[in-house]
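tokens incoming
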């Protein structure tokens, strides 16, 4: 293993790679450091090795020994060229990093594969997480595979479709009143009280973020070892965005890519603490009151850990990127468009990235020739969005050509 220690992203304090969470001095996110000089550039290459090893083909760049790896063959998702929707929006090179086809249907399989592997290595018997749904679905799958006991805290408003997936694993699920921040607080205190290992993927667990880096390695490799101009990421607290950025920084340091991408944080207008701070030119992110959006995966008010948002904001600025807030209506239009024009079915949170793209093209931040990657973070089946009316409008007929002819097929929406 080449991971050596973790440093605080705010005050720089060093931490040993033990059961650490946030900085013990200031509470800011920790960042795992490696002996990069000893890591071969081949460690970044996602094409060598077996698919069954998942992201662990990059084990030199991950903070757990490969012998403890818990994998479901996550990672190695395709970077799909979206010509039709690019044309519709006026963009010549749009690509979708399709994380909807991960083992449990969202990118969270990457961070949870790492955090649960680390849990095994640390010798714990119970893992816990707070989650808006997708991280919990990943966590219970990896915990099951590792033979660990799992306790999950989710907000009471979690979509039923996400709860069903989690419940199928037989994990202990607890619904907690309030926002996801209240679930976070309870996961934090109960982990302390009962000795459980907390794998929550805000920046609470410093190992999980390392799994997100592998998205960057795959994008760069698919583009012939370079970065796209922009990467748009749906953001709650921002570990995915931070992980992708870190991955590109590592590859630049290793001489594999020349340029770095500009990172865009896409948030829902009903819960946009990072986009609000960016717009205001503020240096610090503050918690959001009364979060309200259909984008359940990014509905994170950051109450009690707004430093996570501040860290993400810092990366957005450092990358010369931007942060945008998009309405629920724009999100629904965007996912509809992605499905109708490209056959990609994504959940509302993922649609925020596509909706942000529309805004950035309109306000001139992006040019029509820019190469843009949107990260499609979660599958549409996670939170299906068709309205009641749409289902009622589907005709039912007897199985004859005559009844089929009686329908006016051209009027179908
Ligand atoms: C968790 C999640 C996000 C947000 O990711 P963070 O890195 O935690 O901010 C975006 N989309 C989906 C579908 C998610 O599940
Ligand atoms: Zn600190």
């Amino acid at each position: 293993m080449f991971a050596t220690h973790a440093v605080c992203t705010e005050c720089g304090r060093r931490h040993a790679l033990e059961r650490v969470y946030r900085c013990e001095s200031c509470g800011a996110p920790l960042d795992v450091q490696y002996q990069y000089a000893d890591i071969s550039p081949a460690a970044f290459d996602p094409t060598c090795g077996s698919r069954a090893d998942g992201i662990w083909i990059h084990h030199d760049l991950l903070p757990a020994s490969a012998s403890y790896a818990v994998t479901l063959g996550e990672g190695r998702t395709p970077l799909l060229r979206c010509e039709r929707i690019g044309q519709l929006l006026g963009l010549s090179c749009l690509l979708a990093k399709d994380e909807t086809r991960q083992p449990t249907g969202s990118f969270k399989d990457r961070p949870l594969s790492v955090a649960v592997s680390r849990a095994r290595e640390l010798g714990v018997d119970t893992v816990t997480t707070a989650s808006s749904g997708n991280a919990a679905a990943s966590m219970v799958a990896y915990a099951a595979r590792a033979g660990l006991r799992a306790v999950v805290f989710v907000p009471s408003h979690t979509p039923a479709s996400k709860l069903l997936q989690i419940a199928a694993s037989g994990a202990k699920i607890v619904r907690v009143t309030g926002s996801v921040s209240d679930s976070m607080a309870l996961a934090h205190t109960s982990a302390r009280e009962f000795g459980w290992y907390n794998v929550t993927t805000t920046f609470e667990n410093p190992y999980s973020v390392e799994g997100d880096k592998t998205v960057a390695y795959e994008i760069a490799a698919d583009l012939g070892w370079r970065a796209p101009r922009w990467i748009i990421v749906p953001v709650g607290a921002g570990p995915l965005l931070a992980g992708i950025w870190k991955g590109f920084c590592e590859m630049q340091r290793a001489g594999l890519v020349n340029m770095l991408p500009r990172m865009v944080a896409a948030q829902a207008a009903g819960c946009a603490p990072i986009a609000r701070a960016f717009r205001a030119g503020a240096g610090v992110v503050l918690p959001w009151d009364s979060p309200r959006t259909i984008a359940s995966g990014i509905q994170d008010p950051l109450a009690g850990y707004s430093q996570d948002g501040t860290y993400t904001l810092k990366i957005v600025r450092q990358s010369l990127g931007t942060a945008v807030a998009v309405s629920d209506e724009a999100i629904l239009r965007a996912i509809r468009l992605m499905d109708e024009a490209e056959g990609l079915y994504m959940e509302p949170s993922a649609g925020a990235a596509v909706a942000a793209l529309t805004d950035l093209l309109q306000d001139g931040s992006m040019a029509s020739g820019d190469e843009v990657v949107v990260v499609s973070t979660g599958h549409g089946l996670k939170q299906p969005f068709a309205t009641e009316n749409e289902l009622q409008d589907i005709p039912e007929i007897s199985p004859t050509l005559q009844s089929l002819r009686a329908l006016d097929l051209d009027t179908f929406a």
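note: The mean pLDDT is 96.
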